[in-house]
Amino acid sequence: MISRVGATEGKAEAKFAERRGDQARHWLVHAGFWALYLGFRHAAATFGAPPTPPELAEFPFFTNRALAAACYAVATGALLALFLWRRSTRLGVWRYAILFGGAIALMAPLHAIEEFTPRLFAPDLDSEPGNIFAYAFSFGWALLLWATVQALMDYHHRIVAQAQLINRAQALAFDAQLKMLHYQINPHFLFNTLNAISTLVLERKADLAERMLMQLSGFLRYTLDRDPNELALLSDELAAQHKYLEIEQTRFGDKLAVSFDATPEARRARVPSLILQPILENAVKHAITPRADGGRIDLSAWRDGEYLRIRIEDNGPGLAPVNPGERRGMGLANARERLSVIYGRRAGLIASNRPQGGCSIEVWLPFEQEAILEPTSESLAGR
Known about the structure:
Blueprint: H1 2-46, H2 61-85, H3 94-105, H4 107-121, H5 132-202, H6 206-225, E1 231-233, H7 234-252, E2 256-262, H8 264-267, E3 270-272, H9 277-288, E4 295-304, E5 307-314, H10 331-343, E6 348-353, E7 359-366, H11 377-381
Parallel strand pairs: 2-4
Antiparallel strand pairs: 1-3, 4-5, 5-7, 6-7
């Protein structure tokens, strides 16, 4: 409960910090916009302008323009504060209508300020009131440009936030699906093994039952230490499968022969944890169990360019002719689905009959040496 509350508080703090950072960017752009506006307006009025009349020789033109720009910044700052305060998805497009409508509404009072501020520095200045429409084309355009910049920033923030939510949801779905497929292995394997132990107990083979329990505990210790979001060294996976096959050899004795042949380079590759276990269990179930004289399972692994290839062969009855693509049961389906979830189209599993009899399962996946699993664009985009 405490950890859950702490995680919730951490997410709330992160969200609040992100929101404050985004608002700070809005205000920085706001200040920079009006500073640039002042510079542009002063440069446009200074360079290439006709000579100043003698009666205005002492008039502080820059100070007057700076005061006008400050008024623009204060007025639009109030509008920006309202815009950011009402950052609610329920308002939707109305927020932008308020922003642009407010910018247009500010033209009249700011036009009046433009008419008034020169008289602060020259009370005797005699000038005719300007037209609001002429003001809109001369200076008022800056208000609409400011509103456009703020709206585009806000829209960009919303798009980025939405993309982050989608990516987070996809990553969570990826993680949940991967864990589901990973933990499907244990109940299936446990049922078969515990059923075998129960049989040994009923047959009063206590020593064999105890040995199998010890082997089972060693194998389960390995599986429980595995994180579904981490890749394991193929050498570790092969060692774990040796533990599993020792359990099966306790059941079958000399009826089960096994050989592993993996190149040193292949052993350094990373593979999804326990990806081989359901395939081997499937081979034991369909190739060894039905035969009175047992059979053998051969595993080989090698690097093929950018891919790691793993082949598991047996000398059992082979695939059923009704469905040559895969056997019944969840073993191959689980392995195939995990590969698809993790790698998308960059990995796969093919099951076929061998010409000399038996079944061949070939797995290919990218040759990687990174330990952490990341959802790829292919795996998230759908397969």
